[in-house]
Amino acid sequence: MIRQANPADEAAIRDCAEQAYRRYVPVIGRKPAPMVADFAAQIEAGHIHVAADGDSFQGFIVFFPKGDHVLLENVAVLPSAAGRGIGRSLIGFCEEQARRGGFTAVRLYTNEKMIENLTLYPRLGYAEVARRTEDGFNRVYFEKTIGGPGA
Prior knowledge:
Elements: E1 2-4, H1 10-21, H2 25-28, H3 39-44, E2 48-53, E3 56-66, E4 69-77, H4 86-100, E5 105-111, H5 115-123, E6 127-134, E7 137-145
């Protein structure tokens, strides 16, 4: 089940981000942006949804409208829940919400050192559109055209 996050989810979201991204700290040389995000503000803004199996938290996604597209800012799954399609379900949920909102594209970025993502996103239909350095991170930008309502 995927549902909108509420303030009671903040600790689980923060823990999930810590577990999912900690392996990248030595590779990048510092904590990736998702590990230091203001989750309380994102929850308050309605930008976070969580995946849960009953009371068991499994992962989360952060996305929101940005101009003419939806920005998928963060998706993370607990390592203990990895490999079950939860991340793909969360991304699919984001895409469906974007479609319903009348948007025709979802954009995202990942750190160039997160090698797995550079092959995962193209398999999900995302095309690389740019590479640039922002906030000291070397980022790779992807976009997926999704069509509008009813597409």
